[in-house]
Write the structure tokens for this entry.
Amino acid sequence: MTIAVLSTGDMGHAVGRALGEAGHRVITSLTGRSQRTRGLAESAGIREVGGLGEVVGQADLILSILVPSEAESFALSVAAAIRAARSRAVFADCNAVAPATSLRMEKAIAAAGGRYIDASIIGPPPGRGDAPRFYTSGPHAGAMQALDGAGIVVRNMGPETGAASGIKMCYAGFTKGASALSVGVLALAQRLGVADELDKEMAESQAAGLKRMRQQIPGLPVKARRWVGEMEEIAATFASTDLPPGFHEAAAVIYKLMGETEFASETPESLDRTRGLWETIAAMDGQLPKR
């Protein structure tokens, strides 16, 4: 198969490399993308073919792997390219978006003459531990089954669009939501002047949780800007089921603040892995108004 991966960021380029190593031809469009993204694509052996028109004309399957805030506008651009080419391209949105957002994208792609797959990714990029799980749903989800075992695991959830995006909302709502809660609680402790005592208490009674926070939180600023839109999509999903959205609306604010710290300018390659937990919390607290 010829598979287009857009964009070739941290997850996308690793997926593209795995698919290429499995024998697929992997292409992309790098128009408007950063030098880092271009370098990742080159390192993964992903071929640039030009703009979206060229991608639509050549790809058997298009995988959209972007930050959630860009997912819908990108799908509309692909829909326009499909319409212009009179193509029957298969477009899989693999981003962390609400089921309602996925349904809007399906409508746009179908109206243009293409075929849409509701998809989501859970797990690390290929090559960094267990293979990531690509959940798929919708009437055309079977088109991705050929990728199962090509460095990824494909799990078809059935013909109803929204199931795959729904499981991502639940999973990320727990994992990334819990990380945001941890950051908020630690910032509160620092503002109340009880940070040292809380650290000691958690070392004594919540050692595993504290260890996890020390490992994970210093790396969050690098990812935080990308997660703001994801938290907003999760909040919208809660609201659509008449559950309170406020927790994840607050999580979006937490990640926005982390994305404004000096550490957010790092990349996964340049991340300072010696930075401590409380140094990271102090940097985020510095973005807040002083009492």
